Amino acid sequence: MFSVLNNLVKLKGNLYITDFFDILIVALLIYSLFLFLRNTKTLMVFLGLAIAATLYLFAKSFNLYVTLLALKYFIGVSVLIFVIIFQNEIRRYFEFLGLIGSRQLKVLPLATRSPTTSEIIQACVKMAQAKIGVLIVVQGKDSLDQFVDGGVPLDGVISEELISSIFEPRSYGHDGALIISNNRVSKFATHLPLSTNFKEIGKHGTRHSAALGITELTDAFAIVVSEENGKISISKDGKLKTLQEFTDLEKEFEKYIKAKFSKNVKESKLKKIIKEDFLLRLGSLTVAGIIWFFAAYQAGIVEKTYNVPFDNLKVPKNIIIQEYSPKELKIKVSTRGEDSFKDIAVKDFKINLDLSNLQSGINKLQISKNLITGPANFSIISFEPSTLLLTAQKYYPAEIPISVKTAGKLKADLALKGAEAEPKSLKVWVPEGIEASTEISTEPIDLSDKNESTVLPVKLLLPEGILLEDKMVSVSVALTIEEDK
């Protein structure tokens, strides 16, 4: 498929359509990395490595020998140190990527101004007035399972009384997080990943760090009540916000529910995709383009010729190819960079000629570019010859009985009572224009040395031009010999 597209769309300046797929995939990886790192302390370290890598590519392009030598060792050591120091962040990044396959398609939606949301808000407000610490996580469309540790499964109906009892200071669940999923209290007393974005956390404590941590990794909505000052904070999309008034909680909760569960979300999805993180996406695309330019475009388009034999053509069973000329097709292909040819061999190219309409005799077949297939990232520049001369013989199927032939005579007191072949007939291919024989004879069986009934293998005398359908078939003859009375 990509090979066909690439053949059709070769752009100016040695650009191929596959180059755009190349840039797009790298841009998506960079974007996901930026998305994960932008709220963590590793962002500046990553940017430092990215700048060093950019300088390396620049130095390589202009052949700055000393700079290349210094950066080569610097980047190698830096990457090793980065992996050791930030191994937890790297693990979390791959967990973040894993969310793509763990989206929950069927999440029971919360409704704005519903009894359920009112119960949550009332419970939070009352506990804030009493300065009781609270951490509630409302699941969005991302799974929370891989980020939530421990806890007690509950599957309880959401109510002010239940939530208040869980966070009552002497309760087992007071210091943990309560998870709301599918319109139920699914777990309590759970542990959440702590954020390392100290700028965003500020002077807040562990509850706020946990609320921020879960919303950095998922699309959940977290509500935190501080037991020091009784203020309510909310966290979503990796951002923490302290509310000035208790009434603001209902507004924030309503905005979140509309964004995640409203029926009109689909209508504004395209608009949201275009606007959301536009500069970050543009930056990712730009970085991917720069990497591609120095790593791929500079390699240039390389051409190579392969001699592909015609001996792997798919020939129908009823046709035999007797002769063909030429013996191979010379195909010139191009791709980006010499390294692309390392794992490519002649067997990777196929000539898909249709031989079902061949006639007995000489056939002249035209070869076109669309009949040649090869690796997806290769373009066919030219091929020769464009014509294949092929001598063929067509056959038609027939089933012919086997006739047993004998020679010599038995002893005077013995008589041949029967001679039967097994199998009794054979399926064969008969050349077109020739009438099928009425029988296939066995080689004559000498009876002069036979004294009793026996079964023995025999050879066949095939009529000229006839071919056996099963070339491995074996034929035997059962001779019935008795005393002549």
From TrEMBL:
Catalysed reaction, written as an equation: 2 ATP = 3',3'-c-di-AMP + 2 diphosphate
One family name in Pfam for this protein: CdaA_N
GO MF terms, alphabetically ordered: adenylate cyclase activity; ATP binding; diadenylate cyclase activity
TM region(s), chain numbering: 15-36, 43-59, 65-86, 278-297
UniProt keyword terms in alphabetical order: ATP-binding, Cell membrane, Membrane, Nucleotide-binding, Nucleotidyltransferase, Transferase, Transmembrane, Transmembrane helix
PROSITE patterns named among the record's database cross-references: DAC (PS51794)
Family annotation (InterPro entries): CdaA, CdaA_N, DisA, DNA_integrity_DisA_N_sf, DNA_integrity_scan_DisA_N, YbbR
Enzyme Commission no: 2.7.7.85
EC category: transferase
BP term (GO), one: cAMP biosynthetic process
Protein role: Catalyzes the condensation of 2 ATP molecules into cyclic di-AMP (c-di-AMP), a second messenger used to regulate differing processes in different bacteria.
Family matches, as HAMAP family: DacA
Entry similarity comment: Belongs to the adenylate cyclase family. DacA/CdaA subfamily.
Protein's recorded name: Diadenylate cyclase
Native species: candidate division WWE3 bacterium GW2011_GWF1_42_14
